[in-house]
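Figure 2 data, in text form.
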Amino acid sequence: MSETSPDVLSDLAPTGKLRVGINLSNFLLTSTDPASGEHGGVAVDLGKELGRRLDVPVAIIAYPNPGALADAATAGAWDVGFLAAEPERAKEIDFTAAYVEIEATYLVPPGSPLKSIADVDRVGVRIGVPIKTAYELFLSRNLKQAKLVHEKGSDKAFTRYVEDQLDALAGLRPRLIVDQAKQHGSRILDGNFTAVQQAAGTPKGRAAGARYLRAFIEDIKQSGLVAETIEANRVHGLSVVAAI
């Protein structure tokens, strides 16, 4: 790990505390206690570990979705964010390498003629997708013929997929397993169209902090702390990315 220099503390805790931005829509990485309202999960635990190493208090700044978290990067509202690394977001955020990845694929309705990932990108195919997710940004760049139907959040995207009889629903495999149980006879396609790379990041212009954060992520992957944190939170569907 890099030394905690004054420059690092100035970049990562300019207010005297480490403000950790989290994405509440990613149930694999975050959770909220219904009684207390306190936030937890893998991302929160790793943020608290970073604060412990910096020897500063931690404040959790929660956002309803990754788009809102990414959009707040230029507002000075958070110091370290846990969200998917994406080229569009990298214009305003300096990302670390990924610490975990999540497979993204499609749910298709009963009787669908779509049998594989490659079948989906065809003329006339309509795909429901939550807006401003990493996989929505990926599909927006890479689909050639199919049409995306955007909604705010996974719940609304599923409802739209069912009510409008869309041809497919794009999502993270663990979430699609939940949605599949609500639609008898539906299928989740094998394989993936992308693996969403979950990383940490800090707003642009904090060079010392970004270097420290990259070293921190590599250290917690190498030491096994990421895997231990996933196990402690009893999460399934996350794959730890190898240290660089």
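Caption note: The first strand starts at residue 18 and ends at 23.
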